[in-house]
């Protein structure tokens, strides 16, 4: 049984605006009129709108109101129920509100204006109306409010059929552009799965082996790097895909440490090869701790720079720049046509979100082209679903890879060392996480976050459910369920189960 929607009464803070030309008459002498101007409640009830089936109440999301009505509702003729401060006048897109009257809510954003009884105060609200499933959408609205996220996109798929897709809030607050499931978002570490697809394509084409060394005289990147040791020369493509190279163990993350990724004293990014060389210089031999020696293959240690190395492997083996190979040789045959490497703020694409920073961070400072294999992808949740249909071991949509290649990609890597992240660690394959302790049974999945972005996608649970949930801001606070990443995981798992019918 699907949970029932609970409507909520919501109070909002009062912001003051100068009142000009509101047509409020002068009070009678001695009359004490209220200065209160607040919207207390906005809803669409079934009694006033018999065709919608389920009533909905507006939910405060940061500084704007959101409300979902059931799919199929005629947004151009909805009858609202509005409660405002006593004696106040209400206007919907500058039309005076009359109870029981239908209004047009089909536009991107509606303006609700409340004028106090005295005429001395005016409060304006933005209202975003969308068709959808109120049970899903109200949880997304709550998430957005808890973590101060302006825009969210989700897509949910059963097998190869899209079951639900929604855009929430604003892709761009300044222009009041509503988010859609086709808006481009930065994917952060979901980029690693795209890099993995490139590597597996080269492997299937017989152009590289997963157990080939990457560095040194016998390595794929022969001649590109110097100051190499036997440890470096032992690192294979498979080690990088499975985060078992050990190359970053004991180091601060080179891909996101300014002394590695920028020229000294500047905000100019160094080339990817310089970032890699600096990392090799810093890790000259295996790293040892109390549990094991972190040489290649011993244990799981997450490495962003490892996927920067892999994107260079793609370029050297294919003879193309990374983005061209990804688009032409991997994504285009899948029918995925609107996925790219992102850039700086002045390089934002027409259908790409604006990213909103929190806690003084600056996501636009990240050099996405230099970090392309680790964190550079921009795409939409609907495009992510298309990719998943091509790598799901279900030929309803023909798979891009052989079953053998897919099985190899989705098999947990066998680490050989001791400790928590050694031989007993079975939660990472080649570029994908798997075997979550409580969520997404049977699925391969991955999340990502950088300043301005938080993302998660899940492919093919035991019940053949897949989905994606992405945001155009990353928060650093917590609610009762944990931080923003914890909530992404919990909610997406809940949504996948909800649509599994």
Poorly predicted residue ranges: 1-27
Rounded mean pLDDT score: 93
How far is the first residue's CA from the last residue's CA?
Answer: 10 Å
How helix-rich are the residues, as a percent range? Answer: 10-25%
Task: Summarize the structure in words.
By secondary structure, the chain is an alpha+beta fold. The longest helix is centred in the middle third of the chain and has 15 residues, at 304-318. It starts with 38 loop residues before the first strand and ends with a helix. The strands form 5 sheets. A 7-stranded antiparallel sheet has the order 12-11-10-21-20-19-18, sandwiched between helices. It has helices at residues 134-147, 191-204, 230-233, 237-241, 258-261, 272-282, 304-318, 322-334, 372-375, 381-389, 403-409, 484-498; strands at residues 39-44, 56-57, 59-61, 64-70, 81-84, 89-92, 95-96, 110-115, 122-132, 151-158, 161-172, 177-178, 185-186, 287-288, 293-294, 340-341, 377-379, 433-434, 444-450, 453-459, 465-471. The chain is built from 12 helices and 21 strands. Mean pLDDT is 93; it is low at 1-27. Helix 2 (191-204) crosses helix 8 and helix 6 (272-282) crosses helix 7 (304-318).
Relevant terms:
7-stranded antiparallel sheet; alpha+beta; 501 residues; 12 helices; 6-stranded mixed sheet
Which SSEs are present, and which pair or pack?
Layout: E1 39-44, E2 56-57, E3 59-61, E4 64-70, E5 81-84, E6 89-92, E7 95-96, E8 110-115, E9 122-132, H1 134-147, E10 151-158, E11 161-172, E12 177-178, E13 185-186, H2 191-204, H3 230-233, H4 237-241, H5 258-261, H6 272-282, E14 287-288, E15 293-294, H7 304-318, H8 322-334, E16 340-341, H9 372-375, E17 377-379, H10 381-389, H11 403-409, E18 433-434, E19 444-450, E20 453-459, E21 465-471, H12 484-498
Parallel strand pairs: 4-9
Antiparallel strand pairs: 1-2, 1-5, 3-4, 6-7, 6-8, 8-9, 10-11, 10-21, 11-12, 13-17, 14-15, 16-17, 18-19, 19-20, 20-21
Helix pairs in contact: 1-12, 2-7, 2-8, 6-7
């Amino acid at each position: 049984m699907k949970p029932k929607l609970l409507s909520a009464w919501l109070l909002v803070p009062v912001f003051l605006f100068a009142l000009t030309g509101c047509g409020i008459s002068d009070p009678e002498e001695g009359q004490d009129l209220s200065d209160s101007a607040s919207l207390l409640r906005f809803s669409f009830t079934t009694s006033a709108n018999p065709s919608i089936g389920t009533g909905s109440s507006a939910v405060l999301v940061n500084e704007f109101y959101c409300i979902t009505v059931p799919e199929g509702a005629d947004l151009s003729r909805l009858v609202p129920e509005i409660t405002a401060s006593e004696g106040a006048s209400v206007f919907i897109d500058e039309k005076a509100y009359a109870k029981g009257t239908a209004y047009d809510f089909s536009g991107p954003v509606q303006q609700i204006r409340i004028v106090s009884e005295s005429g001395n105060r005016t409060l304006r609200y933005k209202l975003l109306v969308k068709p959808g499933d109120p049970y899903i959408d109200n949880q997304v609205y709550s998430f957005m409010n808890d973590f101060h996220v302006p825009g969210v996109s989700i897509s949910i798929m059963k097998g190869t059929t899209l079951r639900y897709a929604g855009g929430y809030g604003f892709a761009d607050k300044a222009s009041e552009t509503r988010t859609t499931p086709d808006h481009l978002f930065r994917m952060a570490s979901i980029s690693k799965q795209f890099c993995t697809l490139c590597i597996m394509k080269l492997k299937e084409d017989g152009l590289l082996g997963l157990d080939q060394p990457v560095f040194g005289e016998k390595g794929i990147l022969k001649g590109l790097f110097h100051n190499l040791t036997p440890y470096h020369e032992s690192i294979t493509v498979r080690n990088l895909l499975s985060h078992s190279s050990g190359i970053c163990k004991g180091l601060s993350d080179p891909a996101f440490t300014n002394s590695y990724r920028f020229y000294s004293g500047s905000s100019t990014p160094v080339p990817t090869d310089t970032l890699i060389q600096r990392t090799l210089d810093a890790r000259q031999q295996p790293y040892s701790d109390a549990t094991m020696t972190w040489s290649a293959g011993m244990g799981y240690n997450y490495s962003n720079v490892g996927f920067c190395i892999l994107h260079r492997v793609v370029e050297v083996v294919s003879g193309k720049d990374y983005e061209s190979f990804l688009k032409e040789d991997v994504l285009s045959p899948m029918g995925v046509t609107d996925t790219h490497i992102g850039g700086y703020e002045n390089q934002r694409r027409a259908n790409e979100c604006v990213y909103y920073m929190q806690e003084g961070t600056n996501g636009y400072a990240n050099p996405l082209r230099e970090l392309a294999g680790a964190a550079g992808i921009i795409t939409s949740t609907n495009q992510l679903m298309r990719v998943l249909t091509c790598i799901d071991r279900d030929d309803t949509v023909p798979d891009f890879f052989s079953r053998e290649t897919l099985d190899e990609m989705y098999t947990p890597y066998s680490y050989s060392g001791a400790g928590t992240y050694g031989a007993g660690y079975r939660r990472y394959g080649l570029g994908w996480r798997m075997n979550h302790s409580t969520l997404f049974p049977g699925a391969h999945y991955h999340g990502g976050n950088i300043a301005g972005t938080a993302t998660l996608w899940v492919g093919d649970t035991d019940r053949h459910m897949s989905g994606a949930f992405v945001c155009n801001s990353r928060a650093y606070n917590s609610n009762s369920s944990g931080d923003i990443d914890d909530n992404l995981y919990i909610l997406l798992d809940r949504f996948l189960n909800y649509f599994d019918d």
